[in-house]
Amino acid sequence: MTQISLTDVSVHYPIYATVRHRSLLSYAANRASFGRVARDVGNVPVVEALRGLSLQLKEGDRLAVVGRNGSGKTTLLKLCAGLLLPDAGRCIITGSRAAIINPGAGLDLDKTGAENVEVIGRLLGVRKSQRKNLLDDVAEFTELGDFMNLPVRSYSSGMVVRLLFALATSVERDILVVDEVIGAGDLHFVDKAAKRVQELFARTKILVLATHSPGIASQLCTSALWLESGKPVMMGAPAEVWKAYSEQRPPLDAVA
Amino acid sequence: MSSLSVSLQDLGGSIARAPLAAWLAMDDVHGRYRRTVLGPLWITIGQAAMVAGFAIVFSGLFGADPRTYLIYLAVGFPVWTLLSQFLSDMPTAFVSAKGVIESYELPWLMHIWRRAFGYVLTFLHHLLILFVVMVALNIAPSAQMLLAVPALAIVLIAGVGVGMLVAVVGARYRDLQPAMGVSAGFLMLMSPVVWRADQLPINQWIVQFNPFYYYLEILRAPLLQQEVAPEIWLGTSIGAVTLFCIGFAAFVIGRRRLYHWL
Question: Which residues of chain A carry a pLDDT beneath 50?
């Protein structure tokens, strides 16, 4: 059974503000001098990225996560993707996972498009018998033609985006975590990309999507969660949550 | 999901993905020499020059038989490079894999195996020199050399243990990598790589209390067709398992914070 179950989950981030925070030498000096040297080593500021969040997602759920920058959206996605473990609370995630958070990882500019498809196919766990299909699929979708056999270094930025997009959306998993939908290339391509994304989302059992677009939230998702400073503010139908979210304005003293 | 259960799953998964790690390691080596005609043969050439240079200068200085000394170096340098890479290269194993960790559902420890297999691959390239030297000096291979295979396994287990430890600490403290880099030369000088343990007139403790000596010995001696004392086999095996446990413990403790550190 595919599920994401978060119970009263909190996540803290250490902020390594100075070089000393990342230095073994400073740490050793601090310890050896009983704290008299390099005093700031022990005081790493901590940010609470998520506080007391509970969330139950089951098969068929498509959750849109909305909120301002720094509200904890990406932290929630990384938690759902299994990258972070909670500092407090319980977090149970069952099912295979894919994350579109940092597309482009593993891409080698000196390799050809086809060679990159081979490597990334392996990283994605595509079986040997399926890798030919993957290559055909990517070649057809990206319309790269002969460029597939040239080094990625020679591609235009739009071509690189198309290649990355095609690869990121090529494998289906039980749980898919997406940080904003990547916009790409010419207009013709945007339509094609939107269609491909929708098809992928439809085959995914649980979708968690961070977005700044009301259209995407209500079109693709069944529910929405609004986060503010790491705390859940509202959860419900995408349209309602979006309405409440867009009506809310930050108080003036918070801006000043 | 406790850190321990996640880490155990990760370890199991990383062993299951060993073929992927090996393939990526091979791809890494090819990638480094992609734009050269000779390709990975550069690894062999570089090491051959080093062995030849040391053999010419030091056989005279030490008054050693040039033939014995040449073959001693042709095994000693590759083994030393293999051992030292676990310390000097592993601290960046997780840091430089950040993007891959974020994007693909792969065990994190796969990145440790990937690097470790890469070191073994480099080692095998270096060993070509040994075979050239053996042919040139007309030395016949023997079955005893096959003991290098279990020795390599022991070195790999110990090395992956050390690797897990320094990769976790190296993610948290970014000066571990340069610290290890500058220590490598010193450690090589303090270990019997260019000199022999039985040549040391004083300060025998340099060898006796040097863990590198035993791991050097266990892999070098079979390739030189020499006996390895049973207590060295036993000691290095126990050491390897201990190091692996320490390294894994570091991963379990570090796993909760590891992603923040990358």
Answer: 183-185, 251-256
